[in-house]
Amino acid sequence: xxxxxxxxxxxxxxxMKTSALLCAFVASASAFAPANQxxxxxxxxxxxxxxxxxAMEFDRxxxxxxxxxxxxxxxxxxxxxxxxxxxxxxxxxxxISDGVTVNRLVCGGCLDFKLMITVPLADFGAWEEGxxxxxxxxxxxxxxxxxxxxxxxxxxxxxxx
Length: 161
What we know:
4-stranded antiparallel β-sheet, two-stranded antiparallel sheet, 4 helices, globular
């Protein structure tokens, strides 16, 4: 921490200003320092599947449906059409599981659209065996939209920490 210059050794005016600015910067920078790692706690997933030698675990699985769209995010016709498909299928998606969560992600910079459907691990197997319905119909509708490309899926774990 910064201490004022002693009255016995006064600094020239320019150096005093620089020292004062440096002290103020150092004092305010501590607000952005990472939290003490020992203070961080994560609620363990109940009945979770361990990953990374036990350093992580998961109890929810996500199926991501994604594509690229064209145009500016504020005026994109392809993104508008994607939104209509989401609206059409959202009631069916929400019936997949009592514990389902649905997240929509849109990146205006790289023109990504993603729909993330997360279910409890206990419900995922049956949904997977059923082909992740209504995935195939949803993806076919995306593929039919002019300006949509790279329609893909991915299965990943999804845990709130």
